[in-house]
Specification:
With 203 residues, this protein is of the alpha/beta class. It has 6 helices and 9 strands, in the order αββββαβαβαβααββ.
Length: 203
């Protein structure tokens, strides 16, 4: 899903190709300095076209994810450029990390069902408030949700606005997207519409 968003970011009139970047909930560590990304998953290598970034820090609470991301950086010859930290993301952000040009938040599903939505909105708002603190003025925030209840409520952008106001920041929304084009949706299954990603300038 993030491959198409990476290509969109490459085309933006921002100097993000040499930017400091931090990604939270990093997963497989899908960030590289080259246009071809080689990922090892279950011992098999796959190629993916991704955006070019400069120094990259990934943070995830999963030790297995950090190990896999580190291995992928090594496969790409990026061990000196990419570093990965095992930490609770909220705690990491509350420690006021250095400001970054690009911050990406791709958390796990906070709202498995509609009944979890109110609690999830509070977590999304807190996470994004903290993430905005880590963005340099004029930098980019790419923030995501994979919770169908959140996406289908239509409240993701409203939550981001609330988070920005709480931090004394303002946002310019550049793009709102969902699943990648290879992730098809069926009109008889609206529950399949669960992915939302918002790319914004944080002023």
């Amino acid at each position: 899903d993030n491959q198409e968003r990476s290509l969109v970011m490459r085309g933006l009139p921002y100097k993000i190709q040499t930017a400091d970047m931090v990604k939270f909930f990093d997963g497989h560590g899908q960030v590289t300095e080259s246009s071809l990304f080689v990922e090892e998953f279950n011992g098999k290598r796959t190629g993916s076209a991704l955006v070019i970034f400069g120094p990259h820090v990934g943070v995830d609470s999963s030790g297995a994810a950090v190990e896999l991301a580190t291995r992928n950086a090594e496969l790409n010859g990026l061990a000196a450029t990419c570093s990965f930290t095992k930490a609770d993301v909220m705690a990491f952000l509350q420690e006021a990390p250095p400001l970054s040009d690009v911050v990406i938040c791709d958390p796990p599903k906070y709202a498995p069902t509609v009944k979890d939505l109110a609690r999830a909105e509070r977590k999304y708002r807190k996470l994004n408030s903290l993430a905005m603190r880590a963005v340099r003025p004029g930098g980019l925030l790419l923030t995501c949700t994979c919770s169908g209840a959140m996406t289908q409520s239509g409240g993701f952008e409203r939550m981001l606005q609330d988070a920005a106001l709480a931090e004394g920041r303002s946002l310019t929304l550049l793009r709102r997207s969902g699943a990648a084009s290879d992730h098809t949706l069926h009109p008889a299954y609206p529950e399949g519409h669960y992915l939302t990603a918002v790319l914004a300038v944080v002023h």
